[in-house]
Amino acid sequence: MIDGKKVLFSGMQATGTLTLGNYLGALKNWVTLSEEYECFYSVVDLHSITVRQEPAELRKRARNLLTLYLAAGLDPQKNCIYYQSHVSGHAELSWILNCFTYMGELNRMTQFKDKAAKHADNINAGLFTYPVLMAADILLYQTDMVPVGVDQMQHLEITRDIAQRFNAIYGDVFTIPEAYIGKAGAKIMSLQNPQKKMSKSDENPNASIYLMDEPDVILRKFKRAVTDSEGQILYREEQPGIRNLLDIYCACTEKNPQEAVKEFEGKGYGELKEAVGETVVSLLKPVQDEFARLSKDKSYLDSIIKENAQKANYYATKTLRKVQKKVGFPERIR
Ligand code: TYM
Fold this sequence. Notes:
54% of the residues lie in helices and 7% in strands. The protein is mainly alpha-helical and 334 residues long. It folds into two domains: 6-180 and 298-327, 3-Layer(aba) Sandwich (Rossmann fold), CATH 3.40.50; 215-293, Tyrosyl-Transfer RNA Synthetase, CATH 1.10.240.10. α8 links the parallel β4 (145-147) and β5 (178-180). The radius of gyration is 21 Å and the shape is globular. The two termini are 28 Å apart. Bound molecules: ligand 1. Ligand 1 binds at residues 9-13, 21-22, 25-26, 44, 47, 134, 137-138, 146, 148-149, 151-152, 185-188, 197-198.
């Protein structure tokens, strides 16, 4: 609890360009939850270097991502928006938690297996202990709630396991966090292969809607979206392409699938694709415009970055000192 409010933490990697999946699965919910909770939203650049990055490019992407958090509607006076690398407590707590995490647990992480297969030439220890750093992110702020897409659930579970293990040894040190998965949009699928999640790293640009895509590009990508030959707009497993389009529509409009199916009754796939495309365009346009405006305001962004890093450091240090004491590190002499 901070000032009587429950604490919320979430983060995104500054790797690649954000997709509609990131927006509907996470960012959009962050904005909705931001009034009710004391929120920490981090640009998780420490996580990004588990795969090779071009330094100048990473720096630029990290700043764009932070700007995008603001452009999406997060108020930086109320929400702590900061770079993970500006708060050294993340790395310090991560080390301690490494000593309370088993190799066997980390070996079971499906994201590790996927990434190791994808980057076979660089299966580094950071990639392996990635979930421990994520646990440190969350536990550092005594987080109650973590809004994420479905793909992060396994990492949330290991976070809870690590926290419970630590608490069982040292007493009530960490708050045990809960995942928050939005009703719609928790798993947006690729437009080219609706069996696969929409991902920043997809090689086919038609598979993902990027948040900065121009309206005509968005409409074109939806037009080309893979569907089926059933010819009926129904929300069911046998029609994953149509279901994904309806999911996107519902996540944007906050309607439920039954309402959406009713709305498109008797209509063709072409009409559905156009309607979904236009809905997405109108949802993203204000975010894109605000992003363009904020990007020009260097001194404002710099002041946000500085102030929020101080705030994050303050809360992070509080937990870190408590943990260091519990595990038996010598006290600091002031
Ligand atoms: P990242 O950067 O891959 O994704 C950021 C957020 O977007 C969600 N997401 C999706 N949601 C719906 N449909 C999709 N196709 C889709 N693709 C991505 C993700 O679930 C995530 O919520 N490890 C994390 C970042 C992280 C983090 C944390 C998150 C680091 N520390 C602590 C929460 C708490 C990641 O790589 O997310």
